[in-house]
Amino acid sequence: MIGLDTNVIIRYLLQDDSRQTKKATKLIESACCNESPCWLSIIVLCELTWVLRSTYNLDRQGIHKIVENILLTSQFQVAQSNIVREALTACQHSNLDFPDALLGRLNHSDGCKTTVTFDKKAGHSKDFSIV
Length: 131
Fold this sequence. Notes:
about 130 residues, mainly alpha, two-stranded parallel ribbon, 4 strands
């Protein structure tokens, strides 16, 4: 198994840089398979959503669809995929951004009764409390 960095998955998904896209596509299509999927860490998913929002102006629905599709792709293995799914569900039922929802769900799964924040938007979620 090999791990993928955010920039590789971005090039593959968005096909936005001809030279890097060609390399990313060749790598993923040759190295990532059902028998040996490529690893995507939680950090990569958070960076991915940030880049999609800040650089490509993708809306929440578009970002969620991309993350859902990654979860459904057998050539990728996503770290803590059950918690990633929970975070996506939390986003769909609130105004939380994916990284915040993921943080709340990760902390909850690690035994935290709450995650303390100054973020008023996150503070209305069941996993957060406002300071």
